[in-house]
Amino acid sequence: MRVVLVSGGVISGVGKASSAGLLLKTLGLRVTALKIDPYINTDAGLLNPLEHGECYVLADGGETDLDLGNYERYLGIQLSRESNMTTGKIYKLVIDRERRGDYLGKTVQVVPHITDAIQEWIERVAKIPVDDSGEEPDICIVELGGTVGDLESGPFVEALVQLRHRLGRNNFLSIGVSYVPIINGEEKTKPTQHAVKQMRSAGLIPDAIACRCERELDEATIQKVARSCQVEDEQVIGVRNMDTIYQVPLLLEEEGLLKLLKRGLALDQVELSPARVQKGQALWELWKKTVIPEKHLDPVNIVLVGKYISLDDAYLSVRKSLEHSAMRCKRKLNLISVDSEFLEHDMQQKDPTKYHNAWKAVCEAQGIVVPGGFGSRGIEGMIDVTKWARERNVPFLGLCLGMQVAVMEYARNKLGYKNATSEEISATAENRVIIFMPEGSKEQMGGTMRLGTRTSHFKPGTEWSKLRAMYGGVEVFEERHRHRYEVNPKYIEELEKAGLTLTAMDDHGVRVESIELKDHPFFVAVQAHPEFTSKVLDPSPPFLGFIAASSGCLDKMIEAARLKNEGLVNGTSATTHF
């Protein structure tokens, strides 16, 4: 078992765990990942997206930190809810053991009981297969959230120090991530010096120091950091701004991180089959080919109409999925976020400037995406923009709430139910075309939604469906879900008679999974969250179809999807689980 620890000493959110993991995969190694979040919440399901970013949903229904999405997108792996450890989870585990009598007669303490539980958790997760090979991973990337020195991080830091000692030399490598600010043109190293000092005092001696900076670090700065932090110059890795985040692995490889990983983990001693080595090399070549953009790409203007647009991370997976698809379509993504409240009629009186700027962005868009969300705020703006996309033949993609909004809009303007709404907005409305799911709980909020991977079945007669074509013409597809509300079955027949095709249903043929308009360039909405399965080298089919339609190359992408499904394109199908 080998562990690579990535921790921050100045600020969180600048971790390079995914890039380090990708570099290790290019050697042919199997890599898994674990994120440690020191907050007391047992999961991220009830966290405010405007404070913590999106809640990322795993295949098993785990509601986790958004960093797990980065791991899955970069590494092409499938993690479990065990891959996100929190203070709440660990303390609950130990308290449950104490109540069962596992510690009978002993005083239960942070050391050794909490720290032992943390180490056991890491060792257990490190052995769980995360790819199609079904084999145990060779290396586990552990990212410690927050910053070293935080009071709440103490037990985790102590457990990691003990784990390093237990695993021994060549089995544990620590990467300290820091920030080098530029003030009046000068690169300041004091924050990094103090951060590393804090790490060392806690027992986490860094084997490499990744210094985040807006520009390439001066050689004098590298030498100063190395000298003050008791490391060699080559152990200081400069991480400057790149054109895209997907080029960071290329930068880290150029800066020598892979050499440090090889030496620090004695990877030359790991015996790998020629097939695995070749697979790693092919991954690296494909990555470089994909993420290095061609010059003078045509732009594609996309508007994201949401409720939480003040924080980019609130829709991180949606943004990344759009980027993946734009790269595949050879387009430069120009993504503009619009607050759905600014599109509502009363905003024209409250703040005409915001109202007109929001609608100007919509009018200039080549495609409109309406993502998920909760609550009634901004819903009317979403309905208005959905009507705009439908009537003016602008490519449209609705996700979760976005699909529910599309159904409400259609019921209002095509069925004539002017008050059509969702039970989430009004529990007593006459025409609730969206209702609370019968199996849901209105008393317990955490973990009670319809979560995780679910199967959807395309209905007979939907061979014309653009969404189905993007999945390669299959009859069944799987995507991850996170919702409490669904389309009211009582309105299904009316909706279809009015021209809204319900293209896919759940296993029981009752729950609506996708809707589509036949005579529209691309009007697709799904109950699922396909953004959670999009990969850098394997874009999500709904997103790829949407961007392709917005870019004018949908037929080309549909043909590629057909060939991929039939296995006629060498190497393409392999990118799903690279």
UniProtKB/TrEMBL annotation:
One of its GO terms (molecular function) is ATP binding. The keyword Ligase applies. It is an enzyme of class 6 (ligase). It catalyses: UTP + L-glutamine + ATP + H2O = CTP + L-glutamate + ADP + phosphate + 2 H(+). Keywords: ATP-binding, Glutamine amidotransferase, Ligase, Nucleotide-binding, Pyrimidine biosynthesis. Pathway: Pyrimidine metabolism; CTP biosynthesis via de novo pathway; CTP from UDP: step 2/2. The keyword Iron-sulfur does not apply. CDD domains: CTPS_N, GATase1_CTP_Synthase. The lineage of its organism: Eukaryota, Fungi, Dikarya, Ascomycota, Pezizomycotina. It comes from Lasiosphaeria ovina. It holds the Pfam family GATase. Belongs to the CTP synthase family. GO terms for cellular component: cytoophidium; cytoplasm. Residues 312-548 form the Glutamine amidotransferase domain. Catalyzes the ATP-dependent amination of UTP to CTP with either L-glutamine or ammonia as the source of nitrogen. Its EC number is 6.3.4.2. GO terms for biological process: 'de novo' CTP biosynthetic process; pyrimidine nucleobase biosynthetic process. Residues 3-266 form the CTP synthase N-terminal domain. This is CTP synthase.
